[in-house]
Specification:
Radius of gyration: 20 Å
Order of helices and strands: HHEEEEHEEHHHEEEEHHHH
Number of strands: 10
Oligomer: single chain
CATH class of the largest domain: Alpha Beta
Largest sheet: 6 strands, antiparallel
Distance between the termini: 60 Å
Number of domains: 2
CATH topology of the largest domain: Aminoglycoside 3'-phosphotransferase, Chain: A, domain 2
CATH superfamily of the largest domain: Aminoglycoside phosphotransferase (APH), C-terminal lobe
Structural class: alpha+beta
């Protein structure tokens, strides 16, 4: 029987709560079953992301990776999105078991876009938008339903919340306008497309990985490219954010007003989640959360100043 040992960082996932603990507990057996059922041979050291493990394998001698993720809503339809893309602009799906959140993928290289100048990386991502923004499968949740869950709680934030009231009111208004716009749904969007979710490959220079797919609007996509690699913007946050924003818009021919609206909505919702997390835990915001809220507010302001 194949022995499966989890890295300490993956074992530490269990501290996130009982659902995570249960997932970590069953993960070795799940991986072992998949290796046996899919006739896979281990071919390297197990890696991990925020909520998934990735194991290099050989399938009939062909290099691949077995990815098993935590069963959350965001990644529920990863296999469906990868199947829809069919390897065009994205990693190729070889096999899937959506019930067990398991996918067998082609093996890509290890280099990602963090090794490129950020504006060069923006050009790469903008080119990938044109490949992956295809009609959305009907099974996907809509971006508008996802964002719509937060407009009420956002509007109810007290005036002394650590997000400027003007920005909160603006985000709520924009979210409601976008929710009423038919153009806000219908396109398959990645949802979390940033520098580390694009890997180098042999069959193409760069391919997308790790989608959080929804039926949405291409203009929903740019925000993660603005808040990631944040430390590189020190000293010129406004200018750096704006340069990335306009590089993406120009290369992908996106509408500036619409993209700006989605950035504002996404950043304010992101900031709200930190407030909500602290409130649920019955504690004050910690330093990391305060810094994240500051980042979110700075990005939302930078794209419209």
């Amino acid at each position: 029987m194949t022995r499966v040992e989890l890295p300490k960082a993956v074992l530490d996932f269990a501290a996130r709560g009982p659902d995570w603990a249960a997932h970590v507990d069953r993960l070795p057996g799940l991986i072992r079953d998949l290796l046996d059922e899919w006739d896979l041979e281990r071919d390297g050291v197990m890696l991990h992301g925020h909520g998934s493990v990735v194991l290099p394998v050989l399938a009939d001698g062909v290099p691949g990776v077995l990815k098993v993720g935590f069963p959350d809503v965001e990644t529920e339809h990863e296999a469906l999105a990868l199947q829809r893309w069919g390897g065009r602009g994205a990693v190729r799906l070889l096999r899937a078991d959506p019930h067990r959140r398991a996918v067998l993928l082609e093996r890509l290289l290890t280099a990602d876009l963090t090794g490129l100048w950020d504006l060069e990386a923006c050009d790469v991502v903008a080119g990938l938008y044109g490949l992956i923004h295809v009609p959305a499968p009907p099974q996907l949740a809509t971006v508008t339903s996802y964002v719509g869950r937060w407009t009420g709680p956002l509007a109810a934030l007290p005036r002394d919340a650590p997000i400027p009231r003007r920005l909160v009111e603006q985000a709520v208004g924009l979210a409601r306008e976008l929710a009423d716009d038919p153009g806000s749904t219908g396109t398959l969007v990645h949802g979390d497309l940033h520098y580390e979710n694009v890997l180098a490959a042999e069959r193409e220079p760069w391919l997308v990985i790790d989608p959080h797919p929804m039926s949405g609007d291409p203009h929903y996509e740019p925000a993660p490219m603005l808040w990631n690699r944040w430390e590189e913007l020190a000293g010129d946050i406004r200018g750096g954010v704006r340069r990335r924003f306009h590089a993406l818009l120009d290369a992908a021919s996106l509408d500036e007003d619409r993209a700006r609206a989605w950035v504002v909505v996404r950043m304010v919702v992101n900031a709200y989640w930190s407030i909500e997390d602290a409130e649920r835990a019955g504690r004050a915001l910690d330093q990391e959360e305060r810094e994240w809220i500051t980042c979110c507010v700075a990005v939302a302001k930078a794209v419209q100043d």
